[in-house]
Amino acid sequence: MSATTQSIDINTRLAIGGNTDELARVFKALADPLRLDILRLLRAESFGVLELCRIVDVRQSALSHHLKILAQAGLVSTRREGNSIFYRRALLLSDDTLLSVRQSAFAALDQLPLRRELASGIQQIHDERSEQSLLFFERHAERFLEKQELVAEYAHYRDTLHDLLDGLTLPPQPQVLEVGPGESPLLSELARRFQHLTALDNSMEMLNRARQSLAQRLGKDDTSPQVSFIHGDTRIALTQGLRVDLLIYNMVLHHIPSPRETFQDCAQLLNQHGTLLLIDLSHHDQDWVRESCGDLWLGFTEQDLDAWADEAGLGCGQRVYLGLRNGFQVQMRIFTRTQ
């Protein structure tokens, strides 16, 4: 008997001795193919009820019943995104008497390939989220910076951001990439710091505005090197062979359809020991930013970011949190490629 199996048996016996009802709820939840599919879908991503209905092709009332069973078994948890409820796998805690049972169930599910129709459904949801975000930027590019500043003004966290940049360990001539720079002053500040800088955006309108804003801030007589501009997303950057030592997302991740996949792409874009610097909002419940700023996600918990980073092979480094007067909180996170 392996050490893992022995550990599972011990913990299971303890659980049976202390709470047979809880163990029964877990086994009941796992004894249904549809609920197993749901757990596989929620491996490292959250979906709303209606999104899950479309992926698994089940009526909302029936799906809600299955989700309730999974929640009662401690296998899924909910997160409110404004007026919507999103589901994800539950975080497993070390003091859980059924920890080994739940871990083993998740591990077994993760070894199974996702059926083609489920993978296709996920991709369709991602495409629709991406289209929603892209349409917003195309329609509101002219006033986007103004809208964004209502939530988190760059000046409020600029000094802390530069302190973090000063403390990074980078090669002498690092390759640097900023994703979705827009009209923020950060791109011009990076251009004055680094010799090799690339700006990436999947909205041509926003990319053009980033180029114009950079020219205005640097001025004609500035001796900073030329900044490269790429129209596309991280997948495009990867196909072009781009690899960087420092990758920066400044208030961008909450506009991206699948943050989990973004972390995977970041790991591939980074050179060995490369750094991902992420600036975004902590999780909040101010739903008005969806319409005003085109946000797909209402910030992120540190547990979500840690889990996505760990899966992608990125080590978690320094973290800073800055509360703002309007109720939002900015989080700055540093991750390093360890694999």
Order of helices and strands: HHHEHHEEHHHHEHEHEHEHEHHEE
Total number of helices:
15
What gap, in angstroms, lies between the N and C termini? 31 Å
**Low confidence ranges:** 1-8
The CATH topology label of the largest domain is Rossmann fold
Shape: globular
Radius of gyration: 22 Å
> Mind telling me which CATH architecture of the largest domain this is?
3-Layer(aba) Sandwich
Mean pLDDT: 84
Strand residue content: 15-25%
Q: Can you say what the CATH homologous superfamily of the largest domain is?
A: Vaccinia Virus protein VP39
Range of helix content = 40-55%
What do you see in this structure?
The protein has 15 helices and ten strands. It has helices spanning 3-18, 20-30, 33-41, 49-56, 60-72, 99-110, 116-140, 144-151, 154-166, 186-193, 204-218, 234-239, 259-269, 288-293, 302-312, and strands spanning 47-48, 76-81, 84-89, 175-179, 196-201, 228-231, 244-250, 270-281, 314-323, 329-337. The chain has two domains: 3-114, Arc Repressor Mutant, subunit A; 141-337, Vaccinia Virus protein VP39 (Rossmann fold), CATH 3.40.50. Helix 13 links the parallel strand 7 and strand 8 (270-281). By secondary structure, it is of the alpha/beta class. The strands form two sheets. Strands 6-5-4-7-8-10-9 form a seven-stranded mixed β-sheet, with helices on both faces. Strands 1-3-2 form a three-stranded antiparallel β-sheet.
